[in-house]
Amino acid sequence: MTVKILSSTSTFKGVSYNTNKMQSGKGELMKFKNFGYLQSAQKVSPAEMKTFLKVHSNRNTRVQTKQFHAMISCKEREYNKKELTKMAEKWLEKMGYGNNPFLIVFHGDTKNNHVHMVSSRIGKDGKKINDSMERIRAQKCMLEIMERNPAQECRKILDQLKSFSFSTLNQAKLY
Fold first, then answer.
1. What angle do CA 8, 12, 13 make, to 5 degrees?
2. Which domains does the chain have, with CATH numbers?
């Protein structure tokens, strides 16, 4: 499972990218949350989404690049769109974006199923959401969601290795 933080902009280009994918049949809107009055609308245009995100983000004028755009990708078709969407929601919550307006769009047009998440870097309180060590935290949050502990997994493999006897280092590497 891979998490990638994509470029941050002031114009919410991530909305356009994902809605273009949806309009061409290569993407599907899986989640549209915390968009206030737009939540009850029958059909919401990309321009309305962008406007809402810009107005929400204008609570803090010091931050120039207000768009948060990230992607979660799995190996080939390991997870389906619903599973990826649930993971993305949990991940956004852990990263501090759960209360913000966000959209999650599934893309199945590549070799690997993946979802894109677009939100604002400005919280409802007008403060910038913490982006310190963001890329490292992103990976740690994903490992937590997947209930994986790489250090523990490594120790387990090393313990298994200790139970064998090897004549050379290359023999151990083959294991």
1. 90
2. 2-174 (3.30.930)
